[in-house]
Amino acid sequence: MVEITTVRLAPTVKSTQTGPLVAAEISEAEEFWVKQVHREHFDFEITHLNRGQQIPAASRIWSLAPYLQEGLLCVKGRLEQSELTQEEKHPILLPRSKYTDLLILHEHNRGFHLSVIATLSRLRERFWIPKGRQSVKSVLKSCLVCCKYSAKPARQQTGQLPQDRVVACTPFTTVGTYFTGAITVKTTGGALQKVYIVLFTCAVTRAVHLEVVSDMSVKNFIMSLRRVLARRGCVKVFYSDNAKTF
């Protein structure tokens, strides 16, 4: 919106250059919109200040001790003795408006979707928004990216276990298998060799049987399976991830 104002809308902005916008043009367009917001929301207070009069105590911004600086309504604050910059000591007053909402969203996106506190902190380097935390929190609720990543997962009831997992039977009657590794072992001659582990687990008792094989070939898996059957007995149900070896 500020960039469009720089080229098309603001009568006070006179661009003498062609090509990309420069910082001075964008700053002047931003000042134009801030003054528009001030006229819309604080015309009564600005009129009194232009006449050299005090703002009535009934005004909603009286406690902020506002004053005019180059046509902008700024807040005096209590940081005059600090070493902050002039903008940080006396930020520009901004009421809740459509422009303020767009400014909040701009700072939020410019900081790669900052939190409420971080977004408000960046805004307060130049602007003072009454009830700023509430305003920022309200605007960030409309950020689709933040809504997506902060969404709570759907709740669902735990499903029933299959019959093979809950019916009592002899260990290793129902078995699941998977390859793990690779790991490096030292052979008898002292050389290092890469090997794999075939994991066999009982679906009912959760007992585990491990077999070491030199590679993930079908031949070595069949040999490890024969050793399991010879030691644990016959398997009735076999689960795997349908890899080529299995």
UniProtKB/TrEMBL annotation:
Residues covered by the Integrase zinc-binding domain: 100-150
InterPro entries, per the entry: Integrase_H2C2, RNaseH-like_sf, RNaseH_sf
Superkingdom of the source species: Eukaryota
GO MF terms, alphabetically ordered: nucleic acid binding
Matching PANTHER family: GAG-LIKE PROTEIN (PTHR47331:SF1), PHD-TYPE DOMAIN-CONTAINING PROTEIN (PTHR47331)
Protein's name in the database: Integrase zinc-binding domain-containing protein
Originating organism: Araneus ventricosus
